[in-house]
What we know:
By secondary structure, the chain is α/β, with parallel strands linked by helices. The chain contains five helices and six strands; from the N terminus they run βααββαβαββα. Strands 2-3-1-4-5-6 form a six-stranded mixed sheet, sandwiched between helices.
Amino acid sequence: MILNQHRIAFVGLPDSGKSRFIQEFVKLYCGRDLSPDTLMDEVHYSDGKDPYGNPDTRTIKAAKVIINKPDGGSLCLMDAPGHLEYIDQIRQCTREAHIIIGLIDCQRVEEAAQYVERLRFLCDIPSDKIQYIHCRGDEVKYGYNFDTEDGINHFKRIANRIWNCDWHPSWSCDRLHPFE
């Protein structure tokens, strides 16, 4: 049994930035460039192609990245699949996690909000176990993006709270829809 390990599951629509968030987190705290392909090697279709012949980076299994912290603890970041057809893998992540981060893509707000609410129902996720983070938003106060200095700084603040295992609800968005 691993003591003092905090498990965080990242859930959200396909292509909402779950793998990218983990990639940037690892780069920030470990100084290691973890390519999304590293996460995908064991989790996408074996032939590497979608039904149309395009490169397939669909996450079909939960990818886990474990980071050992200087204080002796560790973080386990779980990249859950986005496609609901892999609900068993998503459910596995949400059950193992201490906290679930629902990424709400600001370019697809309605769809993302409905998706996360549907996951809460399908995976029986208590409301106090999920935190919402808005990504790809133009208004940084509602989330982060990697396109601006302010957006990157906001990502670093969010990442710092995750690193320090600060699960206080105040750092989560208090609503699914950032522009209400």
